[in-house]
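Module 6 notes. Inverse folding takes a fixed backbone as the condition and produces residue identities as the prediction. Think of it as a translation problem where the source language is geometry and the target language is the twenty amino acids. Below is one complete input and output pair. Work through it position by position during the lab.
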């Protein structure tokens, strides 16, 4: 049956078989993996995944598409959760969860922030996103793409862009180019902010006016002595600080002042 793509749900369906095969190869699914697919749509990734794995969970907000998938696959192979992924409790699946999806681009940033709260339950994630968003996620300090999204995601994950995907690979054709990114929770060198809300607050304040110096943007938090104790030049701008430095600022404030 024909499905009319719904713009409000960011529906651009992947149709290029070679790109689908490359994404599946990057995911490298194993038979007994616990995998959740966000936004399965018409099943471009769902179908090849279910050729390999025993069972898949799919979260699809569009009830028509959810029903289609439930008709195509038996419940012992596919569990469809017809809900909003932004409200989904991913802790539900234990601690070796693999999450995949060609994400709806209109909610990608809030969705990434939502998912990062479950990093302790996640083994890895593979997402197709707008290329520009992937560039911001993996950006290094002192580059124009480095911002709040880079710091807050790099705090929790090691990330790499694994595939560039042209707009021509989707129907309808989107206005933007895409890329596939892999996220692995930082296991080798985990970073620990004692107060993660404070870290998020400081990073947001620093990048609120990225042209201004830290002396200005962080004046509510840091006096000259704090900059000296942290060995940070107050004349730097938000984009010049590494993730580790942001964590050091948050922990300094948390320890010294209990802010
Ligand atoms: N995976 C399919 C593919 O590759 O062709 C569809 C990808 S399409 C870019 C995004 C999918 O996410 C759509 O099926 C859309 O209905 C679904 N979606 C949009 N917002 C959602 C949300 N908040 N929660 C769950 N699914 C959502």
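Target side of the pair, the amino acids:
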């Amino acid at each position: 049956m024909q499905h009319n793509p719904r713009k409000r749900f960011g529906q651009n369906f992947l149709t290029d078989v070679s790109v689908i095969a490359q994404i599946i190869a990057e995911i490298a699914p194993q038979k007994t993996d616990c995998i959740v697919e966000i936004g399965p749509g018409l099943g471009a990734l769902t179908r090849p995944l279910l050729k390999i794995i025993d069972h898949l969970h799919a979260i699809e907000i569009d009830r028509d598409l959810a029903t289609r998938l439930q008709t195509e696959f038996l419940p012992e192979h596919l569990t469809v959760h017809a809900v909003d992924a932004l409200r989904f409790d991913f802790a539900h699946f234990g601690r070796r969860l693999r999450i995949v999806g060609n994400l709806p681009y209109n909610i990608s940033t809030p969705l990434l922030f939502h998912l990062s709260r479950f990093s302790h339950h996640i083994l890895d994630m593979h997402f197709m996103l707008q290329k520009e968003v992937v560039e911001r996620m993996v950006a290094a300090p002192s580059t124009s793409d480095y911002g709040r999204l880079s710091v807050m995601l790099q705090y929790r994950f090691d990330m790499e862009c694994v595939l560039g995907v042209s707009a021509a690979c989707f129907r309808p054709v989107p206005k933007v180019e895409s890329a596939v990114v892999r996220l692995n929770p930082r296991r080798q060198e985990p970073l620990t902010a004692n107060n993660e809300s404070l870290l998020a607050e400081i990073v947001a304040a620093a990048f609120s006016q990225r042209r201004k110096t830290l002396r200005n943007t962080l004046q509510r938090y840091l006096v000259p002595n704090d900059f000296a104790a942290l060995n940070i030049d107050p004349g730097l701008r938000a984009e010049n600080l590494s993730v580790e430095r942001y964590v050091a600022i948050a922990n300094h404030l948390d320890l010294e002042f209990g802010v």
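Reference fact for the lab report: The first strand starts at residue 13 and ends at 14.
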